[in-house]
């Protein structure tokens, strides 16, 4: 399965007084990874929402290994865990420029109809582009 990568520098506002990234910011980093994964397929979250599909997170697990620090260049690797159905699952590895693993994570999201808030299957236009 293809791995999508996004790299960026840790901003000062994401850290505490010791220059360490606040643990809650990792969820945002994972979201950035998912958004870019989808964009790499040729689609966007905005496009999905305009088509009446939303993707709430129903599960998030993070294992913290080492602290990310202010101004670190970090990379989020996003990998689709398996072919989606009603749910879509991702595995992530976040590491610094020295290739030290900072965190490993898994998220599960569910495809939902924006109006009815009921689960639906993964849209065909996404399934057609996923090589799993």
From TrEMBL:
This is Acyl-CoA thioester hydrolase. Belongs to the 4-hydroxybenzoyl-CoA thioesterase family. GO terms for molecular function: fatty acyl-CoA hydrolase activity. Keywords: Hydrolase. Its EC number is 3.1.2.-. PROSITE patterns: 4HBCOA_THIOESTERASE. Pfam families: 4HBT_2. CDD domains: 4HBT (cd00586). The keyword tRNA-binding does not apply. InterPro entries: 4-hydroxybenzoyl-CoA_TE, HB-CoA_thioesterase_AS, HotDog_dom_sf, YbgC/YbaW.
């Amino acid at each position: 399965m293809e791995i999508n990568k996004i790299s960026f520098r840790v901003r000062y506002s994401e850290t505490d007084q010791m220059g360490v990234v606040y643990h809650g910011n990792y969820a945002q980093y994972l979201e950035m990874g998912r958004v870019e994964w989808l964009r790499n397929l040729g689609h966007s979250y905005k496009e999905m929402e305009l088509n009446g599909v939303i993707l709430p997170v129903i599960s998030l697990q993070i294992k913290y290994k080492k602290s990310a620090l202010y101004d670190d260049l970090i990379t989020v690797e996003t990998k689709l865990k398996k072919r989606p159905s009603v749910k879509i699952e991702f595995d992530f590895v976040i590491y610094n420029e020295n290739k030290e693993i900072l965190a490993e994570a898994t998220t599960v999201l569910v495809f939902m109809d924006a109006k009815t808030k009921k689960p639906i299957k993964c849209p065909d236009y996404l399934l057609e582009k996923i090589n799993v």
